[in-house]
Design a protein that fits this description.
Jelly Rolls; four-stranded antiparallel beta sheet; 11% helix
Length: 188
């Protein structure tokens, strides 16, 4: 059996190595990225020491309007998908000494500051607790972790909001939000 030797040109010799190098540059140019937000700046609870456990982002009581928990903006370089994650926790307490109290909320990552958190919407969650009457108060905590994939149609600044909606909050209850922070993982 006879083998033939083929002559290879410089262009052919470069095909694979050059393609690899060019592919690496193309991958780098279209690479995704992760952008994170530092946890909220805590405030010191009134009448408390400087203990870390007393530091929270904000609090609200029954009857109070709940502010936007946190917002986060990033500049999308083009079309892609943003995997938006929110992390934080909330503790609710009741100081009602005679009756059972309820704290019940919806939470959601939304793209409109005027949107109302909806349990049935993308990333919607429900957080509810019943608090027994007690002379020293009772409390329970919620993990507010949430995640949502959002299609990005074009380049530009995008802002996300983590919102809570009050479904029921009985008198003499108060809630504290801790460590609220967003992370965005963008993929073209």
């Amino acid at each position: 059996m006879k083998t033939s030797k083929m002559k290879t040109s410089r262009v052919e010799k470069c095909l694979l190595p050059c393609a690899l190098v060019l592919g690496l540059f193309a991958a780098e140019a279209s690479a995704g990225f992760v952008k994170t937000q530092a946890p909220c700046t805590p405030v010191l609870g009134s009448g408390s020491s400087v203990a870390q456990a007393d530091r929270y982002c904000f609090s609200f009581s029954a009857g109070d309007a709940i502010p936007v928990v946190r917002s986060f903006s990033f500049n999308a370089p083009g079309e892609g998908t943003a995997l938006v994650s929110f992390n934080g926790s909330m503790t609710c307490s009741s100081f009602n000494t005679e009756t059972f109290a309820v704290a019940d909320f919806a939470s959601q990552i939304v793209t409109d500051t005027n949107a109302v958190a909806n349990v049935a919407g993308p990333s919607g969650l429900r957080h509810g607790v019943g608090l027994l009457p007690n002379f020293t108060g009772t409390s329970d905590s919620f993990n507010l972790a949430s995640q949502r994939a959002i299609a990005i149609r074009r380049a530009g600044v995008r802002t996300f909001y983590f919102k809570l909606a009050n479904l029921r909050m009985d008198p003499q209850t108060i809630c504290y939000v801790y460590n609220a922070a967003f992370t965005v993982n963008f993929a073209p």
